[in-house]
Design a protein that fits this description.
Number of strands: 7
Shape: globular
Family: Belongs to the short-chain dehydrogenases/reductases (SDR) family.
Order of helices and strands: EHEEHEHEHEHHE
CATH superfamily: NAD(P)-binding Rossmann-like Domain
Keywords: Oxidoreductase
Protein name: SDR family oxidoreductase
CATH topology: Rossmann fold
Distance between the termini: 49 Å
Strand order of the largest sheet: 3-2-1-4-5-6-7
Strand content: 15-25%
Pfam families: adh_short_C2
Oligomer: single chain
C-alpha cells in the first residue's frame, strides 16, 4: 500500500498559487485533481482537471466522485479557492456578501466535508486552507471586513477540525497570507502593496508553495495557522 501514489485535490488551481501547488505536488509524485471554475483538461495523465464552482455542492461531490473513480483515494485537500473584495464596510452590496460567503465558506464546507469523510475511511489525511493575515492584524487603508468574516472563520474551523480529527490521523492547518504577487494584482499596484509588509516587498508564489509543502511533511503539526505574510501579523 505504501507504493500507491498519494492524491491531492487543489481548488482554485487554474493560475497563480493554485497552479504552483499543482506543479509542486506533481514534483513530489502525487496525482492531482485541479479544480477551478474554468480550467482546461490536462495533458498530464496524473492530473485530473474538474471545472466548476466549488461553492456548488454538486461540483464538490463531482470532484470527489471523479477523484475516487480515477485515482481511488484522497490524501490531501488544499482549499486554495477564495475571493477578496476590498470595499468600505458600508459599501458592500448583498451580491458582494453572498459571493464572499459562497466561495470562501460554502466552497470550503462542501469539499472539506466530503474529502474528510473519505480520509476517515482510509485512516488519515491532510487538509490545508489558504487564509489571510488580515484576520489577525487589520491594516488601515485596506478595508477587509468580509475577508475577516470569512477567512477568520476558516482559521477557527481549521483549529476545530484539527482537534476533532486528531485521533483519526487527519491533520488540518492553514497558511495565512500577506499579499502575494499573482496575476490578480496589477503591476502598478505592486509598490503600494509591497509597503504594507514590514519586509517591504510582496510575497512570491513559490514562498506560499513552500509553506504548504512544509505542512504536507510536518506530521506532528496540526491546528497551526502558519503566517506567510512578510511580518504583517507581527505588527507595523
Amino acid at each position: 500500500m505504501n507504493n500507491v501514489p498519494k492524491v491531492a485535490i487543489v481548488t482554485g488551481a487554474s493560475q497563480g498559487i493554485g497552479a504552483g501547488l499543482v506543479q509542486a505536488y506533481r514534483a513530489r509524485g502525487y496525482r492531482v485533481i485541479a479544480n477551478s471554475r474554468s480550467i482546461p483538461p490536462s495533458n498530464d495523465p496524473d492530473v485530473l482537471s474538474v471545472a466548476g464552482d466549488i461553492a456548488d455542492p454538486a461540483v464538490a461531490q463531482r470532484i470527489v466522485d471523479e477523484t475516487l473513480a480515477k485515482f481511488g483515494r484522497i490524501d490531501t485537500l488544499v482549499n486554495n479557492a477564495g475571493i477578496f473584495t476590498a470595499k468600505p464596510f458600508t459599501q458592500f452590496t448583498a451580491e458582494d456578501y453572498a459571493a464572499n460567503l459562497s466561495v470562501n465558506l460554502d466552497g470550503f464546507f462542501n469539499i472539506t466535508q466530503r474529502a474528510i469523510a473519505q480520509m476517515e475511511r482510509q485512516g488519515g489525511g491532510n487538509v490545508v486552507t489558504i487564509t489571510t493575515s488580515l484576520t489577525d492584524h487589520a491594516i488601515d487603508g485596506v478595508p477587509s471586513v468580509l475577508a475577516s468574516l470569512t477567512k477568520g472563520g476558516l482559521n477557527a474551523a481549521t483549529k476545530s477540525l484539527a482537534i476533532e480529527y486528531a485521533k483519526r490521523n487527519i491533520r488540518a492547518n492553514a497558511v495565512s497570507l500577506g499579499v502575494i504577487k499573482t496575476p490578480m494584482h496589477a503591476p502598478e499596484t505592486h509598490e503600494w502593496l509591497a509597503a504594507l509588509h514590514p519586509v517591504g516587498r510582496l510575497g512570491e508564489i513559490d514562498e506560499v508553495v513552500q509553506a504548504v509543502m512544509f505542512l504536507e511533511s510536518a506530521r506532528f503539526t496540526t491546528g497551526e495557522i502558519l503566517h506567510v505574510d512578510g511580518g504583517q501579523s507581527a505588527g507595523h
